[in-house]
């Protein structure tokens, strides 16, 4: 089962994919958060035969909803209607900082953060 991971940001959205067996995640791409975002995610889901989406759950330090969380909720609704695959949330606090610490700041840092989110989910759901 292939899974797709998303690290949602207001400017860029990191995308990660698992291998076909759903055992390990890898960075895929970084998409601009613009009017084409939903269509691009739909295309990847279709082309890669994704069976589940895992989105980073953005909450404040005290667990409260923040503006990014509200945008993620909207994306979940849109994806549910357009691709029809199950969508799960996975805590994503500090994943971008962890990706930067591991690899330095570069153009794929958001995709690497999505990979961290997806691998975290996989470790909890073998």
Explain the layout of strands and helices:
Blueprint: E1 2-8, E2 12-18, E3 25-32, H1 37-47, E4 50-57, H2 67-83, E5 87-91, H3 95-103, H4 109-124
Parallel strand pairs: 1-4, 4-5
Antiparallel strand pairs: 1-2, 2-3
Please describe the structure with a list of short key phrases separated by commas or semicolons.
single chain, alpha/beta, globular, 5 strands, Nucleotidyltransferase, domain 5
Q: Overview of this structure, please?
A:
A five-stranded mixed sheet has the order 3-2-1-4-5, sandwiched between helices. It is 42% helix and 28% strand. The protein has one domain: YqgF/RNase H-like domain (Nucleotidyltransferase, domain 5), CATH 3.30.420.140. It is of the alpha/beta class and 126 residues long. The protein is built from four helices and five strands; from the N terminus they run βββαβαβαα. The model has no long low-confidence stretch (mean pLDDT 92). The chain has helices spanning 37-47, 67-83, 95-103, 109-124, and strands spanning 2-8, 12-18, 25-32, 50-57, 87-91. The chain is globular, with a radius of gyration of 13 Å. The termini are close together. α1 (37-47) crosses α2 (67-83) and α3 crosses α4.
